[in-house]
Amino acid sequence: MKSKDICRGIYYFKEVNMDKTEHMQSFDIRLLYIFSTVAELKSVSRTAEILNLSQPTITKSIHQLEIFLNMSLFTRNKGMMLTAAGQRAYEHSQYVLKSFETFGQIRSKDI
Q1: Non-local CB neighbours of 34 within 8 Å, separated by 6+ positions
Q2: What PROSITE patterns does this protein's entry cite (predicted)?
């Protein structure tokens, strides 16, 4: 198998056609947290305020996630509205974030 999904959204191995080699592309779980917050609040500025990040950081994070997933997640007309693909990504992001939170709880209990 040429592509492997490791740890459900934390690290991915993704085949890239450059020189027929495989490259590891890291994925930061914080992108999902930022994405899900924007999806819930429908606002970059409100998300930036709540997460104590700059608006450019929020915008860049969403853009990085869109590039990583190769899909548009939001329509940007009046507020940030999820596209159909964005809605599916949001549903999956909730699963990943809950799993990640559970993993942290297990880790702290078992150590």
Answers
A1: 47, 51, 53, 58, 61, 62, 65
A2: HTH_LYSR
Burial profile 69-81: b = 16 or more Cβ within 10 angstroms, e = fewer: eeeebbeeeeebe
Beta bridge partner(s), residue 11: 6, 26
For the segment 42-97, what is each residue's pLDDT rounded down to a tens digit? 999 999 999 999 999 999 999 999 998 999 999 988 789 999 999 999 999 999 99
Who contacts 91 (Cβ-Cβ below 8 Å, separation ≥6)?
A: none
Instruction: Tell me the CATH number for domain 29-110.
Output: 1.10.10.10
Domain locations along the chain? 29-110
Backbone angles phi, psi at 74, to 5 degrees: -130, 150
Q: What is the dihedral of CA 99, 54, 40, 42, to 10 degrees?
A: -150
pTM above 0.85, yes or no: no
Query: CA 102 to CA 77: how far, in whole Å?
Result: 36
